[in-house]
Amino acid sequence: MIFRILIFIIILLSHNCQGQNDMLKNNSHFKITITVVYDNVSYDSSLTSEWGFGCVIQTEKDTVLFDTGGNGKVLLNNMQKLNIDPRSIHSVVISHNHYDHQGGLKDFLTVNSDVTVFIPNSSPVDLEHEIHSRGAKAVRVDSFKQITNSIYSSGELKGNIPEQSLVLQSANGLVIITGCAHPGIVRIIEHVKPLFPYEPIYLAMGGFHLKGESTENINKIVKTIQDYGVQRIAPSHCTGEAAIRIFKQRFGEGFIESGVGKRIVI
Length: 266
Fold this sequence. Notes:
alpha/beta; Metallo-beta-lactamase, Chain A; 7-stranded mixed β-sheet; 13 strands; disordered N terminus
């Protein structure tokens, strides 16, 4: 009798795992376009480059804005030049509580308040009230959370500056997008990897907060990232010029030049 019960449990678990794997495979079929709409690193000289970060992620079903930079007018102007309609965005995700990542939110919500704004759980109450006052919905994020069909929040990683990152499922593997990576880019990768144990990390991009780090430390971080199997890298914002140069040298063809106006299609 006990043997039969064990067999039943094994079969049930197998079916559940297969269902989860099927869901992951289905999610990864979507084509993804990532457009950097706000960055102090310039890629397209026709756009305004200013300290901060923001990018738009477009899948076949959803459009998400990750961070809003520090100036809403710059954000909206760059989006207009890039032919991205703010009203097409369904969700906004704020990485952390710094002006250069959420300063453009008010102006954005003036144009499009029909969105859900996902903020770190540690965000001040004033930010939540501001979002609600403009007619949008605020959702606090503490742990790993699905945002849309193939886009997830890593959950808020605790530290001196708590922060959430985005994780995208693509046909090529996972894409990790960081605002500033204050908890550490390696720590973020270490956190994400067990959440998707069967998927490779195709791309890590965004701000890695390595400005001012020693060459020795940067090289160690780059090696660890490569050891985790990250195939491509697109650092910008607060990564720092020295670190970006090292990433370019070490990743070779896997390095993607990023900055405001950069479009990455996966």
